[in-house]
Amino acid sequence: MSYVNAFWVGGLICALVQILMEKTKLMPGRIMVLLVCLGAVISVFGWYEPFANFAGAGASVPLLGFGNILMKGVKEAVDSQGFMGLFQGGFKAGAVGSSAALIFGYLASMIFNPKMKK
After folding, report:
1. Percentage of residues of the chain with pLDDT beyond 70
2. 62: three-class secondary structure by DSSP
3. How many CA within 13 A on the CB side of residue 46?
4. In 40-61, which positions are buried (b, 16+ CB within 10 angstroms) versus exposed (e)?
5. Would you state the pLDDT for residue 30?
6. Cα 53 to the chain's mean position, in Å?
7. Cα 4 from chain centre
8. Hey, where are the domains in the chain?
9. For 31-77, how does the pLDDT look when each residue is reduced to its tens digit (9 = 90+)?
């Protein structure tokens, strides 16, 4: 059943984002920032953990999950380091995912020879 929940929740998130892209004049980059911020806000209120437990990868793979990871890192760093944790926590928590995206993106560009759209 967890696969089914992950599928329909992740699909619903993607469908809502697609509707947002089609019906508004928002650029994709702004929508991505909106999703990360929404994930962080949901995490602040404590709603993300029950949502992630229910939806599994359907909640943690989209950009909402990245916002949650950043907020979790900030919370932990503020608890351990105080005010300076505001500036360090998000970077430490999101470093692995960001590094992996950069490395795999670079490797894929070397293999598949990307071209710019005109």
Report:
1. 100
2. coil
3. 0
4. bebbeeeebeebbeebbbbbbe
5. 92
6. 16
7. 21
8. 2-112
9. 999 999 999 999 999 999 999 899 888 888 778 888 888 898 888 88
